[in-house]
Structure prediction request, 182 residues.
Amino acid sequence: MKFLPTPLPDVILIEPQVFGDQRGFFMETWETRKFAEAGLILEFVQENHSHTRQGTLRGLHYQIRQPQGKLVRVVAGEVFDVVVDLRRSSVSFGKWLGTTLSNENRRQLWVPPGFAHGFYVTSNTAEFVYKCTDFYAPAHERTVAWNDPDIGIHWPLLAGEAPLLSDKDRVGLPLRDAETYP
Prediction:
């Protein structure tokens, strides 16, 4: 596996080694020792899987208490995956990173606690899988507005159309009004 730094401190892009032949392919997506060697000593307590249709945007979500680190990947389709640093003490507070994750590139992204996370589906559908370092706690879940101009995320919206959003994502707060981390 290759562990590639990103412009946001602590966010890591992971490229697995893929072994393929006429039968198909094999790859490791998680191996405790390899991640530890890269400085990621993690314990996962939950894994989630979503199926989402094209044009849907999920996020930007985080938990203000019981913050979750997430190891995210796409097993079918393609998404534009985004993280926003919500740690006020960070030099990159309020900055965002976007990257394409797909079943073709097989990349994973490590999203540390202290970041909001979301994705936009660019393929017909996408199967999104992620491991979490803490349990889902709906009472502590928060949403930052996906289109906050102060963050300025450049979402690759199809035909420039507004994304499909859940009710909670429609009422996400601008960063200036959102609860953040120290």
Q: What stands out?
A: The longest strand covers residues 46-53. The longest helix spans residues 32-37. The chain has a mean pLDDT of 97.
